[in-house]
Structure formats: C-alpha cells, structure tokens
Amino acid sequence: MGILKMSSSISLFIILLTMEFAICCCGKNSSFGCIPRERKALLKFKASLLDISNRLSSWDDYKDCCVWDGVKCDKTTGHVIGLDLRNSNTSSYEMFLQTQGNQLDSSLLELKYLSYLDLSYNDFQLGPIPSFLGSMKQLRYLNLSATNFNGIVPHDLWSNLINHLPRNIGHMMPLLELFAWSQNSINGSIPESLCEMKALRNLDLSNNYFFGTIPDCWENSQDLLVMRLSSNELSGIIPNSIGGAYSLQWLRLNNNSLIRQLPSSLKNCTNLELIDVGENKLSGTLPRMDWKRLA
Ligand SMILES: *[C@@H]1O[C@H](CO)[C@@H](O)[C@H](O)[C@H]1NC(C)=O
Ligand SMILES: *[C@@H]1O[C@H](CO)[C@@H](O)[C@H](O)[C@H]1NC(C)=O
Ligand SMILES: *[C@@H]1O[C@H](CO)[C@@H](O)[C@H](O)[C@H]1NC(C)=O
Ligand SMILES: *[C@@H]1O[C@H](CO)[C@@H](O)[C@H](O)[C@H]1NC(C)=O
Ligand SMILES: *[C@@H]1O[C@H](CO)[C@@H](O)[C@H](O)[C@H]1NC(C)=O
Ligand SMILES: CC(=O)N[C@H]1CO[C@H](CO)[C@@H](O)[C@@H]1O
C-alpha cells in the first residue's frame, strides 16, 4: 500500500514536471519569441561595441531579445527581422555606438531573417567596409549613412571588387529597396550592378569620393523614386538611360564634375519634383519639359 502510494505520488510528480517543461518550452517559442541563437548573436554584436551612452542597456535584461531597444522580431516565427540602431542625436558624439576594434562584428550574419538594418550616424572608426555585408542577401533596407567607414574593403575577401564598392553588390543584395551609404569616405566608381537591384526605390550615395561616370544602365529602373549622388567627384555625362527611371521624384546630382547638357530622355520622368544639378560643369539647353512642376 505504502509503495503504491509512493509510486503514484512519484508519477504525479513526473506529470507535473512534464507539464512544467511543456509550458516552459512553448513559452520559449511564443511569449519569449526570441530565438536563442539570434539572442546570442546580438549579445556578441553588443560586446563588440563601445556603448558610452548605454543605448543598449536593455540588451540582456530580458530573456526575450524581441523587446530589446531597436530589435524587431517576426511575430509568428520569432526571428529577428529588423535592427534599428540609428543614432538620432547627431549633435552628440557621446551618443554614438563605436566599434572597439576597427571592424564591424560579423555576428550579424547569424540573423538570417534580418531585412532591415539601420546603423546610421554611429562611429565605426574609419574601419574597412565589412565584407560580410555582402552575404546578407535578404536585406531590403540598408542605411549605413555617416558611419565613418573609410571605404577600404579587404581585398582578400571581396576579390572581384572594382575600387571600393564591390562590383557585384547588386547581386549580393538583390532585394534592396533602400540603399543609403552617404557621408562616408567611399572612394571608387559606382558599380553598374546597382541597376540589378530590381526593387530599388531609394539610392543615396551622396557625400563620398565616388569618381568616374554615372553608370548608364537605368533602362529598367521603373521603381526608383529617389537618387542622390551629390557631392562626389563624378564626371562625364548624365546618362541617357536615366529616362528609364521614369518614376523618379528626386534627382540630386549637384556638386560633381558632370559635363554637357541634361539628357533629353529626362522629359520621360514626369513625376520629378526636385532636380538639383547645380555646381557641375553642365552646359547647353534644358530639355523641354514641364519645369513649372519642379520645386
Ligand atoms: C543630444 O545630446 C546632447 C549632449 O549629450 C544633449 O544635450 C541633447 O539634449 C541631446 N538631444 C536630444 C534631442 O536628445
Ligand atoms: C539614412 O539615415 C540617415 C541618418 O539617420 C537619415 O538622415 C537618412 O534620411 C536615411 N536615408 C534614407 C534614404 O532614408
Ligand atoms: C581615392 O583612391 C585613389 C586611388 O586609390 C587615390 O589616389 C585617391 O587619393 C583617393 N581619394 C581620396 C579622397 O581618398
Ligand atoms: C561639394 O563636395 C565637396 C567634396 O567633394 C565638399 O567638400 C563640399 O562641401 C561640397 N559642397 C557643397 C556646397 O555641398
Ligand atoms: C520612357 O518611359 C517609358 C514608360 O513610360 C519607357 O517604356 C521608355 O523606355 C522610356 N524611354 C526612355 C528613353 O527611357
Ligand atoms: C526557439 C524556437 O524553437 N523557435 C522556432 C519557433 O517556431 C518557428 C516556426 O515554426 C521556428 O522557425 C523557430 O526556429
């Protein structure tokens, strides 16, 4: 009798234990959301940074990395899909996240479902452009503006690069809708493969040291709304294929060394609200278009 009682209480104990385990497990994938491997990667990324203003203080307090500041997860799968570490206080150097070494940590590669990455206005210490970015094929939004990269890509890793943006960047990140890499010191030519980013709507490479010509490959860029290439060292003509980007609303090419006149194909871009081609060496007549619409 005694033995029976004991064994039933043991099995009750086991049942309770199993139940608790089940609750715990479900919790991990529903209410806790965060995938352990991705949490670990984020912590590794944090550890690689100098965080003077304690911006990432919430990173660790909770098991669920999905509630950490700047982290966004998919509600059903729990995977990290967005990382927004944009520094909104650009007046204060103290607010910047800084790299401790001179290379952005590749732990972000663990975030296989990351589609939104904004690290703008942080200080990556004139380090090289991190080559691992080229493996983030799933990115749709990438803003690395004013991040103090100096444009040197390690040659052994991105061997087929032309100058300093990899020549095949369009194939590396084919889904990009927004590509902003302004206000850095990137030096080199603008890769033609940018035109292969079929979903590209917003391109900002202004305020760098890009030289050479604007690639002539925009025939199929119907989705492009904004193109900013201002304040570089671009020369040559504005290519005629720009007329293929007929949805363009903003075109900023000012402060370069562009020559000759605006291409006549530009009159195809009937949605233009702003065009700035000042501070160049342009000449000749403006193409006939409805300039009254322009600001
Ligand atoms: C930005 O940082 C400076 C210096 O730390 C501070 O005085 C200012 O209030 C901050 N601005 C905002 C909008 O947070
Ligand atoms: C990229 O980030 C910078 C700085 O936060 C911001 O000013 C800019 O508007 C962003 N670029 C685009 C194209 O959204
Ligand atoms: C850009 O790179 C070229 C060749 O590598 C070099 O001669 C030039 O000084 C660089 N320009 C800037 C502004 O860094
Ligand atoms: C024009 O570009 C140069 C660098 O190429 C920069 O130093 C200068 O401030 C820019 N000027 C304007 C008016 O933006
Ligand atoms: C002008 O736009 C049309 C679509 O509206 C496009 O089919 C055509 O190729 C464009 N022409 C040029 C010269 O880019
Ligand atoms: C932590 C964990 O197991 N996460 C899983 C939750 O469920 C989604 C979708 O079934 C998986 O993709 C995650 O790996």
Automatic annotation (TrEMBL):
Q: Which UniProt keywords apply?
A: Glycoprotein, Leucine-rich repeat, Membrane, Repeat, Signal, Transmembrane, Transmembrane helix
Q: What are the record's GO terms for cellular component?
A: membrane
Q: Which domain of life is it from?
A: Eukaryota
All copies of domain Leucine-rich repeat-containing N-terminal plant-type, residue ranges = 37-74
Pfam families in the record: LRR_1 (PF00560), LRRNT_2 (PF08263)
Q: Where is the signal peptide?
A: 1-27
**Recorded topology in the membrane:** Single-pass type I membrane protein
UniProt subcellular location: Membrane
Q: What is this protein called?
A: Leucine-rich repeat-containing N-terminal plant-type domain-containing protein
The organism that produces this protein has a lineage beginning with:
Eukaryota, Viridiplantae, Streptophyta, Embryophyta, Tracheophyta
